[in-house]
Specification:
The protein is α+β, with helices and mostly antiparallel strands. The protein has one domain: Nucleoside Triphosphate Pyrophosphohydrolase. It has helices spanning 44-56, 107-110, 117-123; strands at 2-11, 14-20, 31-32, 35-37, 59-73, 76-89, 99-105. Strands 1, 2, 3, 4, 5, 6 and 7 form a seven-stranded mixed β-sheet that branches. The longest helix has 13 residues, at 44-56. It is globular, with a radius of gyration of 13 Å.
């Protein structure tokens, strides 16, 4: 099983989302929360902090595990874990090559966008909101 950690970074009523490059092997051309795969033996929260920094140059704190979504992608089992997260330092988002743009979006705006599968589940998860 491939474990993927994602950060729901919310400022006011808006979430930080990133647009995945068309060159990405998995789920290209869709909006996503920052985060990524957990490395073997890596602490869950440390892995999330590392991934978000690599993708955005923001230093975050994982506050609370909010949701889990097992999803099959390309016949492989993925387990998405979403954390509520806060920005600890860094003012400007600097994207890695995995993403082509970012934006801050309300929940209502998210519902109008093409999203990564787990994020579709997340925005409609009544246990989260």
């Amino acid at each position: 099983m491939i474990i993927v950690q994602k950060a729901a970074i919310k400022v006011g009523n808006k979430y930080l989302i990133l647009y995945r490059s068309k060159n990405e092997e998995i789920k290209p051309d869709c909006w996503d929360f920052p985060g990524g795969r957990l490395r073997d033996g890596e602490d869950a929260e440390a892995g999330l902090v590392r991934e978000v920094y690599e993708e955005t140059s923001l230093k975050i704190k994982a506050n609370k595990r909010q949701a889990n979504y097992p999803i099959e992608i390309n016949n492989l089992p993925y387990y998405f874990v979403v954390y509520d997260a806060s920005i600890m330092s860094g003012d400007d988002v600097i994207l890695s090559s995995e993403h082509t743009e970012f934006r801050w979006a309300t929940l209502e705006e998210l519902r109008e966008l093409k999203l990564n599968t787990f994020l579709e589940y997340y925005i409609n998860d009544e246990t989260v909101f």
